[in-house]
Queue: 3 jobs
Job 1
Amino acid sequence: MDRDAAGHFVERWLQNWCNVDIDAVVSHFADDAEMRSPLAVELTDSPVVKGAENIRRYWKRAYGHIESADLKVLAWSWDGTIARLTVWWQLGETRASEFMDFDASGRVTRSEAFYGK
């Protein structure tokens, strides 16, 4: 993946989350992906969710009741050397940064989110 492909990914990722299309978001993840989030602790008793299907179940439980979200991407950065995308976003008063590591086929292998205000 290069910077242009990362930019297209950010556009799709944003649209998927604005539509709360969890299946579309998870389709970008490798089967053995790992997602880390402080919010996961509340629903799973662990900050780490392993495996695309477990990530799907977690997100459906956490966000499946929402029909749309006014998520805004504030900025993003691509590091091609380590294949890492970092996205800074805002939803309401919540601001977050999220990084995603990609494999050679362009699928997310690891994701981690950090929240603040």
Job 2
Amino acid sequence: MFGTLPIVMAHSIQGRLDKLKQAIEFARQGLEGLETALLEFEEALSGEAAVRPESRKGLDLLSIPEVCQEIGMGKSWVYERIRSGEIPSVTLGHNIKVRREALEEYLQSQATVPRRTNR
């Protein structure tokens, strides 16, 4: 990996590279937490985080907190899937909504079948 560098120097560089990777991972986790806190703050300001009735007639649109609750995942994860287009969404004003049917289709597309092993 390090070409003609002396072995001691290569180990020193590898150790520092490992520390750098660890620091980047901690920073990534911190930024993800910050993103979640900012999104929650924004939702609180807009009133989107308010409690909603359980059943609705017509289109069954879910807010981001409801999507998170339905699938047991964090807001950052859900927003990333929405941004990438994996989970289809609708933007109404400043609010992002996900049709329950679209969420169910996404979950169905993620289903895996366990492989059988020959014993």
Job 3
Amino acid sequence: MSDTNTAGKKTLQVRLVKSVAGTRESHRATVRGLGLRKLNSVSTLEDTPSVRGMINQVSYLVKVL
């Protein structure tokens, strides 16, 4: 699930696997906050509690690689 980069910080890769059309505005904002734009786009994020919470909120839209 998570990789370790050279700096020793844990990272997560998240992919948008479902369209945000028809979802709540707050969930769309969360997806944008995760750095995801189009379907199947991938974002590499630092593994922090706030990022985990964002992923948990929109877990039905994203997949952690």
